[in-house]
Amino acid sequence: MEHRWKKLLSYYKPFKKWLFADLFFAILGAAITLVLPLIVRYITTSVVYMQSKESIQIIIKLSIAMFGLVLVEAFCNFFIAYYGHIMGAKIEFNMRNEIFSHYQKLSFTFYDNQKVGQLMSRVTNDLFEISELLHHGPEDVIISIIKFVGSFIILISINEELTLVAFAFLPLMIIYAFYFNRKMKNAFKENRAKIADINSQIEDNLSGIRVVKSFANEDIELEKFHEGNNRFVRSKKRSYFYMGGYHSGLGALTTMITIGVISIGALLISKKTIEVTDLITFLLYINNFTEPVKKLINFTEQFQNGWSGYERFLEIMDIQPDIKDAKDAINMKDVKGNIEFENVTFRYEESNEEVLNQINLKVKEGEYIALVGSSGAGKTTLCSLIPRFYDVTGGKIQIDGTDIRRIKLKNLRDNIGIVQQDVYLFAGTIMDNIRYGKPSATDKEIVMAAKNANAHDFIMSFPNGYDTDIGQRGIKLSGGQKQRLSIARVFLKNPPILIFDEATSALDNESERVVQESLEKLAKNRTTFVIAHRLSTIRNAQKIIVLTENGIEEKGTHEELLAKRGIYEGLYNMQFKSRIQ
Ligand code: DGT
Ligand code: MG
Q1: Residue 498: which H helix or E strand, with range?
Q2: Are residues 259 and 380 in the same domain?
Q3: Which of 64, 183, 246, 541 could form an SS bridge with 370, CB 3.0 to 4.6 Å?
Q4: Tens digit of pLDDT for each residue in 441-493?
Q5: Which ligand neighbours the alpha carbon of 383 most closely?
Q6: 376 ligand 1 Cβ < 6 A
Q7: Taking every annotated instance into account, which residue ranges of this chain make up the domain ABC transmembrane type-1 (predicted)?
Q8: Among the atoms of ligand 1, which is closest to the Cα of residue 378?
Q9: Extended strands (E) in 338-463
Q10: What whole-number distance in Å separates Cα of residue 33 and Cα of residue 31?
């Protein structure tokens, strides 16, 4: 608990000066608010009874002073509102950077078990609540205490009875405000949840709009949407009910305090216990002690929200990346690409069954290896161990004789190019997407890479060429085009080791041929793993590995394996026959 507080306070550190300035102006503003009625009181009780010449001069001076004070107060309020919020935004900026860079460090295992929407809300909603608390919290508490205590001391020194009358209403006000504020905030929270639901529903619908239309399910979608939309209105109704109750009730209670003070005050005046000016002073102070009550109650709520947001923030920050550089990690120079699996065993964290068991495999530099096997056998998994997307649970993998866990992650991944099974392209232009493989690449290099990947021609056939916007996730491109773009990326990266996870969805013959051609060009002089689903990629391999649930069952060239008349032959015949049909 204590270290959480320490860490929370540490976010103020770079803004110490701002915080102190903020608090200083908060105190100054509160003090001025308290002083103004005192000046009024001085004028109405003393100055007006002085000799007229003297009194006029004093009144003029005091009026000017009051104008001046109001200006100062206005500046204080401006400073708090403007710089206070900026401080909050900067703290939020720092925390957001922190959590975003933490996200970049976390491994595949972490992301396998998370929902993107929730991770995003940590960065947006939670941080907003925290920064609201961090910048409003201290000033609200200080201003409220000064105003409340200050007005109490001033009023009680004027008249005790009337002070008791005025403060008698406060317990009721506190209970009322507490109750309604809580209900209102809860209802608002629910509104936000409903809005989030609606948003995710819209997102889901729009991303899947092609599926919706293909099933002609627009009406069902509309119905689903109406339901969510209606829930939103119901929840809004509730929140407005409490909001109405909160504001109208507190307004009424404040007016009641005024009426109570006036009534009792009038009685006291008629009994000659107090002067009219005392009553005026009282009336001028009413806001000064009712407002802090509202603010402090609001603060309790704000604190809860901010703190629970902060705890969720820490929850993420406390997760240590399970794959990171070892202390003595090294950078490898001139990687050749000899890869060796030694008794490699692997199991996904949340499952208790091994996907890979005791795998032994030696691949020499520049070799072209095809991995085949039934779906779910672990081909993609095997390949994702090489760039350490997951760490082996047993055995080791070596590159050029060095255990990959001893190589710096960046260095390791810089030496491996991957074309994934489902290609991911970022929203943006074709140029941007290819450049992702080497951010420093010139336009000329990019065109070169595209030519190597057989992508140049189709790119040039677009009206905007390389500046064509490919839409979210490259929706405006065909499957084969997307794959060729991701091949171009790897050409640009130019790594000694290549992993090509062939898309299972069949390409038509023509695009299959082009993709194949660009792949072969790419594979030249690199150690290449191809997870093969197509005959053409299998035939060209120097070595074919047949992977099943039992591990590597067969190994050899196409001809050798066919001659063996084993699993490979079965797989091959199945594909070959379906091809002919
Ligand atoms: P494919 O692409 O359909 O030809 O199949 P493979 O051979 O690429 O299969 P792979 O490596 O994707 O999956 C092997 C097994 O591991 C399969 O039973 C599904 C399971 N698996 C894959 N990814 C995960 C994961 O992230 N978590 C867990 N628990 N299991 C996974
Ligand atoms: Mg796969």
Answers
A1: strand 497-501
A2: no
A3: 541
A4: 999 999 999 999 889 999 999 999 999 998 877 878 888 888 889 889 999 99
A5: 1
A6: yes
A7: 23-305
A8: 11
A9: 339-346, 356-363, 368-372, 394-399, 402-403, 416-419
A10: 5
* In a shared domain, residues 498 and 398: yes
Q: Whose alpha carbon is nearest atom 18 of ligand 1?
A: 376
User: Do 233 and 305 have their domain in common?
Assistant: no
Q: Which of 413, 369, 418, 321 is nearest to 541 (CA)?
A: 369
Query: Which amino acid type is present at position 417?
Result: G
**Tokens in use for 224?**
């689903």
- 343 shares a domain with 243: no
pLDDT at 580: 47
Atom of ligand 1 nearest to the CA of 382: 11
What is the helix (H) or strand (E) element at residue 68, kind and residue range?
Answer: helix 52-79
End-to-end alpha-carbon separation of the chain, Å? 69
pLDDT < 70 regions, the chain:
504-508, 576-581
What is the number of helices (H) and of strands (E) in the chain?
A: 22, 10
Give the distance (Å) from ligand 1 centre to CA of residue 274: 86
Q: 137 and 154: one domain?
A: yes
pLDDT in the model for residue 577: 63
In terms of domains, do 411 and 369 share one? yes
Stated as kind and residue range, the H or E segment containing 223 is: helix 218-270
For the CA of 351, the closest atom of ligand 1 is 29
Classified as helix, coil or strand, 232 is helix
Q: Is the CB of 469 under 6 A from ligand 1?
A: no
From the CA of 398, how far away is ligand 1's center (Å)? 23
Whether 475 and 550 map to the same domain: the answer is yes
Structural domain includes residue 236: yes
Which amino acid would we find at residue 208? G
Query: How far is it, in rounded angstroms, from Cα 28 to Cα 77?
Result: 10
Residue nearest to atom 1 of ligand 1 (CA): 375
In whole angstroms, give the CA distance from residue 293 to residue 395. 65
- The CA 403 to ligand 1 mean position distance, Å, reads 24
Joined tokens for residue 384: 């994702």
Domain count, the chain: 3
Give the residue ranges of DSSP H helices in 404-478: 409-414, 430-435, 443-452, 456-460
Ligand 1 atom with least separation from CA of 112:
26
State the pTM of this model: 0.81
Domain hosting residue 492, numbered range: 339-577
Ligand 1 geometric centre to CA of 378 (Å) = 6
Q: What is the structure's pLDDT at 340?
A: 95
Q: What's the pLDDT at 581?
A: 44
Cβ of 375 closer than 6 Å to ligand 1, yes or no, is: yes
How far is Cα 186 from Cα 280, in angstroms, rounded to an integer?
39
Alpha-carbon torsion angle 36, 37, 38, 41, nearest 10: 130
